[in-house]
Design goal:
- With 362 residues, this protein is α/β, with parallel strands linked by helices.
- It has two domains: 1-104 and 263-362, Isopropylmalate Dehydrogenase, CATH 3.40.718; 119-257, Isopropylmalate Dehydrogenase (3-Layer(aba) Sandwich).
- It is 41% helix and 20% strand.
- The chain has twelve helices and twelve strands.
- The chain has helices spanning 14-32, 45-51, 57-65, 88-99, 122-125, 165-180, 196-210, 222-231, 243-254, 295-307, 312-327, 341-354; strands at residues 2-10, 35-40, 68-73, 103-109, 129-135, 147-151, 154-158, 185-190, 216-221, 238-241, 264-268, 274-278.
- It has a ten-stranded mixed beta sheet, sandwiched between helices. The chain has a two-stranded antiparallel sheet with strand order 6-7.
- Strand 8, helix 7 and strand 9 (216-221) form a beta-alpha-beta unit.
- The longest helix is centred in the first third of the chain and has 19 residues, at 14-32.
- The radius of gyration is 20 Å and the shape is globular.
- The structure holds nicotinamide-adenine-dinucleotide.
- Nicotinamide-adenine-dinucleotide (NAD) binds at residues 13, 17, 73-76, 92, 260-261, 277, 280-286, 292-293, 296, 334.
Length: 362
Amino acid sequence: MQANIVLLPGDGIGPEVVAEAVRALEAVAAKFGHTFSFTERLMGGCSIDQFGTSLTEETLADCQAADAVLLGAVGGPKWDDPAAKDRPERGLLALRKGLGVFANLRPVKVHPALIDCSPLKPEKVRGVDILVIRELTGGLYFGWPKGREVKDGRERAVDTLEYYDYEIRRILELAFKMATGRKKKVTSVDKANVLESSRLWRQIAIETGKKYPEITLEHVLVDTASMRLITGPAWMDVIVTENMFGDILTDEASVLAGSMGMLPSASLGERGPGLYEPIHGSAPDIAGKGIANPIGTILSAAMLLRYSLGLEVEAAALEQAVEQAISDGCRTADLGGSLTTRQMTDEILRRMRDAENPAPIH
Ligand code: NAD
């Protein structure tokens, strides 16, 4: 297979971890006989510095024309001025919107060897294997009207939580499809006791669920869901929710695994390239030190192989190599070890090269 992948390393540790994921993809290409070409572009704070905007039209067009996009992280104290006319995060929202990636998939799996790194008691996190699916291009972050005004001598701010039926239906369809290949359970999270948009969400969840009789559907209010993620995460499987609830719950779920540096994500649309990125930010506190954990980005590359290129065997080979390296005790500083970013990748790639994988099915 030939594939064109656009790289957006971004800011802080972004370039450090993306460089390792590229090494991983090159190792996969060499092992399985594929050709991946990489085009690197600026996005986020570095793009503001160079072009005066966090995402140029040319970069967006390159991403739209690619087979997949791999992103590091954006942002940092240099671009944090709330009065600035552009911010790195604006580029991220524009990229998601421009690619039409409405579904953000965040698998949260607690590796048995890392149970002690989790802030929760071992008996709570043992066996946790959750897939959070967050709606990404609707809701409060995009609804209109939005803004501030002075009304009757008072300053007033407004954001709008808006959803159309088709936006809800397509993400729920995806959640049920994903649940089919897992434990056959969907937890739909809403706030239907208060919000009209959540009542529409719940109605469509029930309608969609009727098409998948083999899947158990439960509805959980967002406040209860946030509690359950701490008290009984091992009982949850596929969680699907709207944009802002998902933003908060995915960060909460991410701490279960012990380090932000471990977790990948994929953002998918109905067609066009997917966007793949670790869930962590640009980590300015460790940027430039060469100690960032590359696993979140390497596992994002595995998701890219699976969802954008259809290379399931290759994705699984990379994931198994990560599992094996962790089981063998390889650790970066965030996990209490001393391996550098590059050494951690070396350990993973050595295991992938050495493993006997089944022949790829093409
Ligand atoms: P962060 O995720 O960057 O860092 C939080 C903590 O986790 C830090 O102590 C950091 O050192 C550690 N950490 C994160 N990734 C790690 C890795 N791979 N290996 C080892 N340790 C890691 O969150 P923050 O500090 O709140 O934000 C820093 C900047 O990143 C801000 O400008 C924020 O806006 C931005 N941000 C960007 C994204 C994104 O690009 N998608 C997401 C979140 C935050």
